[in-house]
Amino acid sequence: MKKPTRVNHPPEVPLPSDNHALVAPIYQTVKFEFESLEETERFLRGARPGFFYARSSNPTTRQLELLLAELQGRGDCLVTASGVAAISQTLLALTKQGDHILCFVETYNPTRYLIRRLLGRFGVTHTMLSIEDLAGVERVLASQPTRLVLFESPTNPVTKIADIAALTRLAQAAGALTVLDNTFAGFHQHGGYDVDVFLHSLTKYASGAGDVMGGAVIARPEIIRQLRTDFGALGATLDPHAAFLILRGLRTYFVRYRAQCRSAMQVAEFLAAHPAVARVHYPGLASHPQHALAAAQMQDFGTIVSFDLKDGAAAARRFADRLQLFALAVSLGSGESLVVTSQLMSGRELSAEQQKISAVVEGTVRLSIGLEDVDDLLADLTQALSPET
Ligand SMILES: Cc1ncc(COP(=O)(O)O)c(C=O)c1O
Q1: 325 CA to middle of ligand 1, Å?
Q2: Atom of ligand 1 lying closest to residue 332 CA
């Protein structure tokens, strides 16, 4: 073999069958081959297991899918290149012209955009209510056939809690699928409810390092089977290297999430007692209007703490600029604490009535609590909230 040939066919290093790597290798390969055309054909007919082309599947991304399915308590999972890809591909694969979607004002902005603008162009209609309006949900589901109900809990940014048992019961009675974007609550929560499809951004708590993007759809095997072909055609595949980084991040998921929740609770209590703060939105606080529901549904209350400053937009702006440890950046769930103000969160396309439902006011600030020592976070909040001298 000449050297130009050899570099394209490097030596193989097979592991002896009794010798294992403790961390699975990254299958950084697009293509897989079988020993013969016949075996390739058998694979393509679904008559044997294996891998063929990484847009459809790859052992590293598959390992991540199997782990996430187990964490969320469902039979199967598909991972995607971002959280938004998980949402858009799921919506495209589950709906057709003439279908109706029930969604909520408090939903993540890009999800609302996807439903209103993108699916709207393909003749999918929607109704948007407040997540607190269960009577409205019942009324809408009774008044027209609905393909799916898409919601989040806790909501962004003011951490409203969806009544998951009531929503799934109403949807099921109406023959609608429930789709829960469970990014804020994490993979270990809400699995006991009768939700059909869970969506996650892996960009957040799964990786935990803020250096990789990904998304996941977790559901019963028959739903995932239905989605798999369309996902392959839509093409927002997760790269195996990204899957490896996310698998690595997941090793510390529980300790990170719980440590961040403990700090979030301390931050929420600190803010609730601060004279510059009008209102704190954190489901772990007894003062949260849905604390009892949150306590019944969740083991951990999340790492997002929002609050309204008494002195409105100017105070929020000054506070965000004065913070030293909290970075002025979007996203959540990674090791560094983050801050965003209402200017970066408001849904500009919402009507005045919908803005009111969203409960984001000019002085609203959202904190994403990271893994720093909580004393340092409290000291930073104290100096940023102190009156100007
Ligand atoms: C609730 C929720 N869903 C989905 C996403 C989208 O995830 P990604 O940024 O990975 O596309 C985000 C991102 O902030 C989010 O907060």
Answers
A1: 23
A2: 14
| DSSP-assigned beta bridge partners for residue 280 | 307
Is the C-beta atom of 152 inside 6 A of ligand 1? yes
Structure tokens at 87: 């949402």
Rounded Cα gap, residues 155 and 227, in angstroms? 26
Kindly report the average pLDDT of the chain as a whole number.
96
Residue of 203, 238, 245, 344 best suited for mutating to test ligand 1, as the one with most atoms within 8 Å of CB: 203
Q: pLDDT tens digits for 24-37?
A: 999 999 999 999 99
What are the tokens at 271? Answer: 């803010």
Report the pLDDT averaged over residues 224-240. Answer: 96
The b/e string for 340-369 (b: 16+ C-beta within 10 A; e otherwise) is bbbeebbbeebeeebeebbbbbbbbbbbbb
Give yes or no for residue 183 CB within 6 A of ligand 1. yes
Amino acid at 174: A
- Regarding the beta carbon of 84 and ligand 1, being less than 6 Å apart is answered yes
Close Cβ partners of 105 (under 8 Å, ≥ 6 residues apart): 128, 129, 130, 131, 347, 350, 354, 357, 358
Can you give the pLDDT at residue 52? 97
Whole-model pTM: value is 0.97
